[in-house]
Amino acid sequence: MTQRIASYPGTALSEEDIERGHVLSVHDQLRADYAWDAGLAIGLYLDGLKAGVILGVRCRRCDRTVVPPRAFCEQCFAPMDAFVPLADVGIVNTFSLCYVTWDVKRIVEPLIPAVIDLDGTSPPAGIMHLLGGVVPDRVHIGMRVRAVWKPARARQGAITDIRYFKPLRRG
Amino acid sequence: MTHPVAIIGVGWSGFRPVTPDVSYKELIYEAAVRAYADAGVDPRRDVDSFVTVSEDFHEGTSIFDEYVPDQIGGAQRPVHTITGDGLHGLAAAVMQILTGRFRVVVVEGHSKASNILTLPHITAYALDPILNRPLQVNPLAVAALEACRYMHESGATREQCGAVVTKNRRNALRNPAAAYGADLRTEDVLASEVVASPLARLEISDHADGAIVIVLADAETARRLSPHPAWIRGIGWANDSPSLESRCWARAVYAERAAAMAYKMAGIGNPVEEIQFAEVDDTYAYKELQHLEALGLCAQGRAGPLTREGATAPDGCLPVNVSGGSLGVGHLLEASGLARVLEVVLQLRGHAGSRQLGDVYTGLAQSWRGVPTTSGAVAVLSNQLGGRES
């Protein structure tokens, strides 16, 4: 205090107030629940994953096959309904060795997100997934990989029905 | 307007309470294909720019503008998204064309309201987090507070609000796209449960799923492509001071200002004389009355009595919400304003089927962004440039 001020107004902050989040921030939980309609194309894609099949779709006008399937071609705007099963094999288009998780925690063994161009598709049509069963330093662009599926019983019709893609040859 | 802009194509899909058979992308694609066929344009070749409207929390995706191009034909093209009502998007498209850099511009709006399981929670998050949210009041109460003050000052009665509901839901019976057509009596509305006084259940519009795509063009392109251009003679948008502590609770000041802007652009001095029919926001029944007065389509306090007398019915002197409005069509979130525009365009073309009004050439579309906002927009459209004579 000073000679002129005997005490400051207000309530003093303690370390505990800050640690417990009583001050400086507000915690709130928004209830945001969604039930997205997957629709025809993505619905078929997810059904296919449950059955252990990766479905693509063919645009007859553009003469190209893309995955995941969609009900229309974003290039020529024609409807697409020629759904085709694809091999679960492809090559790494691009990848990263990621040493932070999605919620920003440091990890020692990296997560390896990759875009995989499946055989029989027309670029750009790579699917975003993960690599596994590989020594991180050995991963390279152009590496051939194959899907590692969950057991049929455990599949739910979700992108995670494929656990990851692993090298065709020992990595 | 020296360089007029016209609507040359409209397309829609829906409107239904649920659309489990299609994703939002497939829903929008259907509307877009219709709009481009209607306008006679190829989106991959002829459209110069795309404007969409959406609200991230309604979609459940941050930065939702990244999810809009493919289904409207806008991949690798100029696209931007406005967090506002569809009429705000329409205003942006008009401005783009007025720059002279764009000839054909597309506006898209949609609703997948059925996919949002906790919509009241989402809406509550629009309230001020320090001053209002801690009170834990349902945001519907914001509309109720406004209805209370509006009815107090204007003299509007619950019966008059009930008449809005019966009219709009009956109008919707003649609109094949409407989700909530019904033949109700005013007593049914008044007897429905009070949700937040003075608002009863049937005075609150239900949501519907749907998508609307509108194609706009400059005058030269419009005349070349369209046998029935709907000219946007005036467009305006405005806000009140939006906080719950500073806004006007009785009048829709945003609609007054937006209308003044649109009327000035359109050269309309006497809207009562020059606007033949209107599609206005009726998210809640009292809103239609409040908005009609704000738009200067009747004197303060007269919207209620006129509605009871049938003046705003399809065969009245000022047909209002012949489409069924949000009460009859279903509230389409950000696409609601475009639903109002859609009906004005169909009426001006003579394409409104069994609900077609006779001999109409100038109509008005108005939107409100919903609770807790004081944000709205107005567009004046004509099927002839420069009024009836030209």
In short:
Helix content of chain A is 10%, strand content 32%. Chain A has helices spanning 15-19, 39-50; strands at residues 54-59, 64-66, 82-86, 89-95, 98-100, 106-118, 127-131, 144-149, 162-167.
Mean pLDDT of chain B: 96
* Weakly predicted, low-confidence segments of chain B: none
Structural Rg of chain B: 19 Å
Give the tally of structural domains of chain A. Answer: 1
Structural write-up:
- The complex is a heterodimer of chains A (171) and B (390).
- Chain A is mostly beta strands.
- Chain A has 2 helices and 9 strands; from the N terminus they run ααβββββββββ.
- Helices cover 10% and strands 32% of the residues of chain A.
- In chain A, strands 4, 5, 6, 7, 8 and 9 form a 6-stranded antiparallel beta sheet that branches. Chain A has a 3-stranded antiparallel beta sheet with strand order 2-1-3.
- The longest helix of chain A has 12 residues, at 39-50.
- The N and C termini of chain A lie far apart (69 Å).
- The model of chain A has no long low-confidence stretch (mean pLDDT 93).
- The model of chain B has no long low-confidence stretch (mean pLDDT 96).
- Chain B has a domain at 5-117 and 207-224: Peroxisomal Thiolase, Chain A, domain 1.
- Chain B has helices at 24-39, 56-59, 86-98, 119-124, 140-154, 158-172, 186-191, 219-225, 253-266, 271-274, 285-294, 303-309, 325-329, 336-349, and strands at 5-16, 49-53, 79-82, 104-112, 194-196, 199-200, 209-218, 230-239, 277-279, 362-368, 375-382.
- In chain B, helix 3 packs across helix 14, helix 6 (158-172) packs across helix 11 (285-294) and helix 6 (158-172) packs across helix 12.
- By secondary structure, chain B is an alpha/beta fold.
- Classes of the chains: A mainly beta (171), B alpha/beta (390).
